[in-house]
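Example for tutorial group B:
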């Protein structure tokens, strides 16, 4: 038995190297999984932030229309539009006069390090209803666009 003692020691030393290699591989897998999870989380956090900003921008545009309906009265407010009309709502818009009537609005609002486009589409689903659909768009990549749409129907109230 004593004559094989040196072999047993060398085998133990070799298994320690194998154990170390396996432990290193397991740690590498764990670190890769954690890094992947963190990257996914950061991406989702940025997307949520952009969606929050877009929703705020859309609500601001709806508020401009709500204010104008209150100031002008429903009849004048409704006669300010044509059915199917499209307006660009720039960042500094405070009234209907600040909104150019055009389609394909440019990315002209810079918020949170991202460019946004904001437009309002006007329809008359009924004689006493003005429907305003505000769409805010932004691009994550050159071919991947995102949008938030808010709809408000203004009715004649007496």
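The residue assignment follows.
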């Amino acid at each position: 038995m004593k004559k094989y003692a040196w072999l047993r020691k060398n085998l133990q030393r070799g298994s320690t190297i194998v154990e170390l290699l396996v432990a290193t591989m397991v740690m590498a897998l764990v670190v890769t999984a954690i890094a992947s999870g963190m990257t996914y989380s950061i991406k989702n956090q940025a997307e949520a932030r952009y969606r929050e900003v877009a929703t705020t921008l859309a609500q601001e545009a709806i508020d401009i229309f709500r204010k104008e309906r209150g100031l002008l009265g429903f009849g004048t407010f409704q006669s300010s539009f044509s059915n199917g009309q499209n307006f660009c709502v720039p960042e500094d818009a405070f009234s209907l006069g600040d909104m150019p009537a055009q389609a394909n609005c440019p990315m002209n609002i810079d918020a949170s390090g991202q460019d946004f486009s904001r437009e309002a589409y006007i329809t008359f689903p009924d004689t006493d209803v003005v429907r305003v659909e505000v769409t805010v768009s932004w691009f994550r990549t050159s071919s991947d666009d995102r949008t938030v749409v808010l709809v408000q129907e203004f009715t004649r109230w007496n």
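The chain has a mean pLDDT of 86. Compare this with the pattern of hydrophobic and polar residues in the output above.
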